[in-house]
Structure to design on (217 residues):
């Protein structure tokens, strides 16, 4: 019996764990354990959601200098742990964690834009993350995509990436942006219009749009 199981065995007032996969507790059980202050829960929470948090931050921030990423991941988890009692439905924790990460990314974009006047180079000249294992055409498309995303207001950028890159439901986009569903639709509409309009003038991205038409719906 592992330490996690032993820590749960003596809790007569706790509900039974809903084991998933190879005997692991469910997402909701990890949240409930966090709220009860069980010692194993913080490490389990981080191990389970760290990949999602890092992926969301990378996708929203794109070419943001990645030496900051570890600090941003830490910030997202610190905020999640501090507000875990505010999560109404423990079964919805994955969307909630993504929203927390998206808000951290949003604030990071705002700070970056505010201090951009200090730079002696254009945003397009900022260092790119290493992508040596990526096809050159895809690398070029990614660079151009994030150059366009850099032009969007922070909220539009977050909404656009969550919806069209992460594939998040509209309700999750609204939660992450702290707006109503109706407002989220309007934000996405404006973001999509601006992105497609700019991409259609880019010789590389125009081909991708013509082949996929992803943002035309």
């Amino acid at each position: 019996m592992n330490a996690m199981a032993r820590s749960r065995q003596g809790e007569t007032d706790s509900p039974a764990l809903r084991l998933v996969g190879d005997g692991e507790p469910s997402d909701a059980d990890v949240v409930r354990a966090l709220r009860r202050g069980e010692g194993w829960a913080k490490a389990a929470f981080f191990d389970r959601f760290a990949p999602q948090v890092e992926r969301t931050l990378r996708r929203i921030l794109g070419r943001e200098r990645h030496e900051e990423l570890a600090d941003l991941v830490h910030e997202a988890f610190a905020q999640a742990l501090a507000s875990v009692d505010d999560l109404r439905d423990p079964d919805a924790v994955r969307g909630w964690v993504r929203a927390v990460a998206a808000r951290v990314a949003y604030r990071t974009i705002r700070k970056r834009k505010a201090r951009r006047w200090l730079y002696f180079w254009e945003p397009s000249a900022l260092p790119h993350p290493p992508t040596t294992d990526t096809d050159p055409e895809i690398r070029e498309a990614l660079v151009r995509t994030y150059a366009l995303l850099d032009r969007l207001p922070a909220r539009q950028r977050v909404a656009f990436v969550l919806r069209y890159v992460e594939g998040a439901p509209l309700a999750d986009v609204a939660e992450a942006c702290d707006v109503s569903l109706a407002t989220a639709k309007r934000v996405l509409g404006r973001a999509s219009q601006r992105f497609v309009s700019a991409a259609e003038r880019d010789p590389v991205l125009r081909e991708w749009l013509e082949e996929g038409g992803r943002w035309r719906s």
